[in-house]
Amino acid sequence: MTRLQTWNKNIVSSDLVYKLNPKNIHDLTRFENVVLKSCINSSIQDQKDIIFGLVALELLTNQKAKVSRTRKSIAAFKTRKFMPISTKVTLRKKNLYNYLDFFICIVLPRLPQLKEFEKNSVIKAKTSLSIGLPNLTIFPQLTKESEQLPKNMGLTLTINSNNIKSNTSLLLFLSEFQMPVIL
Question: Would you kindly state where each structural domain of the chain is located, as residue ranges?
């Protein structure tokens, strides 16, 4: 069991029982999965640039990345059918807690414009929180390879959870893991 997983089991679950008063222990909020998605704008002109996204996600998560392709052609975006456009990785169970522990303790303090996650930013998606990272040099695994990575490469981290009854319960759950949240 990882450090964050034992924290969730011993501290957070008992704390949420007192704060949220669930009818059943299975109604407690927990993490479903974490999805990391990397999109490279230059991959439309040169399809070989998708390799940078694959390598970056594999270095960050120690898991094989999947290539996402377009479903249909759109002339305005200059895309063709089945063209590789982005890469993604879905983390579940033990890998989820390992990566969240790394993200909360190491990556979030290194963000230059770290802002709190407010109630208004979570209203649209009740069960998930998406964080956009425009620069990948904040990750320690990618600092040496930052010269080889494209400049316009970003990362979107989506944290999905279940059994969310309200927006404040999601923010309360995230604040239990020391995420910067304003309730």
Answer: 30-175
C-alpha to C-alpha distance for 23 and 26, rounded to whole angstroms: 9
Q: Is 70 buried (19+), middle (13-18) or exposed (0-12) by CB count in 10 A?
A: middle
3-state class (DSSP) for residue 99: helix
Mean pLDDT of all residues in 83-111: 85
**Which of the two residues, 47 and 98, has the higher pLDDT score?**
98
**3-state DSSP of 142-173:** HCCCCCCCCCCEEEEEEEEEECCCCHHHHHHH
- Domain 30-175 is found in CATH 2.60.40.10: no
**pTM (predicted TM-score):** 0.81
